[in-house]
Amino acid sequence: MLTADILSAPSSSGSLKSRLFGNKYKQQLKSPPQQIYALASETCKWSAVLKEIIDNSELLRHERKLTPILGLLLVHDFLLSRKGIALPVSHGLRAAVERHKARLTSELTRARLRRKAASIDVLRELVTIESLGEARLYPRWVRVNTLKTALQEQLDTTFRDFTRVSSVRDVITGSTTGKLLYVDEHVPNLLALSPTFEITKTHAYTSGAIILQDKASCFPAYLLDPRPEDGDVIDSCSAPGNKTTHVAAILKSRSPAREECARKVYAFEKDQHRARTLNKMVNLAGAQAITQMSLGQDFLKVNPDAPTYKNVGALLLDPSCSGSGIIGRDVMPTIHLPEQPGTTPATTKNMNGKRKREENDSQEGRQKQILVDDDGQELVVSSEKEMKARLEALSSFQLTLLLHAFTFPVARRVTYSTCSVYAEENEHVVLKALQSDIAVKQGWRIMARDTQVEGMRSWPVRGSPEASGGDREIAEACIRSYKDDGRGVMGFFVAGFVRDAGSIAEQNGDFTKSESRTAEVKGTKEHRIHVVEDPAVRNGSGARPKDISSESNSSGAGESDRESNDDDEEWDGFTD
Ligand SMILES: C[S@@+](CC[C@H](N)C(=O)[O-])C[C@H]1O[C@@H](n2cnc3c(N)ncnc32)[C@H](O)[C@@H]1O
């Protein structure tokens, strides 16, 4: 019955996933949250059909102890679950449904025929497509996890009966049989699948051989392109771990065959709860040998001069953001409630707004926007002014993190990304970072388009020249995606920053400017780096990490508006 409570909780209780996997209901759950999630989301998915069946059979009029939500859950199990209602035969609620077997079954047949579905299986497919909502216009992006398998191996096994098509558009507009596949032309080891295919039921998915990850979310690790001479990598904001495991796979693919990968990914995640998800994902993906996790660790409090990070040449920064580019794949579907006798006619309830959405606030004649944080909690922004303040706070926090990344002594590559569409969190942060004292003094510049890894160079959607202050080179260097342009990806932004050997050597008091990147990162020079006593002097900026950290606290944006979606939407690891 707890499932009914969780379903009826107000939308401010967050997404279904955060309700189930969060702390509030945890102690009370008798079954694994994955199981309850599957039951609750299936019930929502079928609720339009079930409402018809329950209303037409007048079940709630005959059985007064059934609430509309209980009615949905029990009738769902009775008619559609292989195991039937999971209650003892003698249980009153089970009996209340089962004694209407004939009526309920014939109403199911009528509902099926009204939808012109020749069989229950066809009806299932129709209901699945319908329930995808906005997401049916997007493929299911699947990253083949090369830590565990290979692209060809997956094409020959998990996807052997799929039809290969020649574009993402074909996947989206193709038949609804659920078996179309496109091998992406930009990001290696990435596939686009028909959205209705139940990928989470495959062994490849449950074993971590494939990972659900939107194409755009694969851009940062791919753009970072950490080569052997770049040494170790930091993922500063890691949970749930899509990009951490991606970058780990890239490191491994570049280590000599049959040798252990000597390089490390240092993964930080400030939030304890999300850190647990990161830990699970890293282990499931087989990235634990390469990844050193600091669970619950605030990246801003990490000392760049600590000996542990002396070989860190590349950093990936994917901080919390407004989440305005997220596609509502895992938005809790609308639940259609049966009519309860004696109350006003039935409601159609939207269970939550997992991503930003707009509602018309008729009283005040203005738009309300709902932003969603990393854990799916909603933040209602009811005026332009509030929105502006929120974006300002977020972008100041994002900039602080980025500048902290710039201070790692031998760092030479940094990527900065958000799943936001707002210039304030994207191009504006890039411009401010480039103009900062730290960037100027340490020689950081934008990673120009023509120096980017091939797939990113050829990706056609670039930054906005206007938002880049009219600087075309910066706009071209920035990579964007928009969720409604037919390319089948979420709204996203990523930019890369680089600095050359000379700047690093100069910054660290070494004017030999060795041409060998490996020698600089792995060689003796670091010993010299670590005898530098005063990081503020070394950075030449006066801005020490702890100053930056306190700046961030005052920004009020340390917590994000961005989805766990990166966890819920892209990686559903333990939810099915
Ligand atoms: C957008 S999510 C990251 C998604 C992740 N990169 C992925 O691809 O799966 C941002 C994460 O950064 C974490 N975070 C925010 N501020 C942080 C900080 N100062 N240090 C470490 N983690 C932080 C949030 O808790 C959240 O889990």
UniProtKB/TrEMBL annotation:
It comes from the Eukaryota. GO terms for biological process: rRNA base methylation. The active site is at C419 (nucleophile). Residues 341-351 have a biased composition (Polar residues). The keyword Transferase applies. Belongs to the class I-like SAM-binding methyltransferase superfamily. RsmB/NOP family. Keywords: Methyltransferase, RNA-binding, S-adenosyl-L-methionine, Transferase. It comes from Xylaria bambusicola. InterPro entries: MeTrfase_RsmB-F_NOP2_cat, MeTrfase_RsmB-F_NOP2_dom, NSUN5_7_fdxn-like, NSUN5_RCM1_N, RCMT, SAM-dependent_MTases_sf. This is SAM-dependent MTase RsmB/NOP-type domain-containing protein. Residues 335-369, 529-576 are annotated as: Disordered. One of its GO terms (cellular component) is nucleolus. Residues 130-500 form the SAM-dependent MTase RsmB/NOP-type domain. S-adenosyl-L-methionine binds at C237, S238, A239, P240, G241, N242, K243, E269, D298, D318. Residues 356-367 have a biased composition (Basic and acidic residues). Residues 564-576 have a biased composition (Acidic residues). It holds the Pfam family NSUN5_N. One of its GO terms (molecular function) is RNA methyltransferase activity.
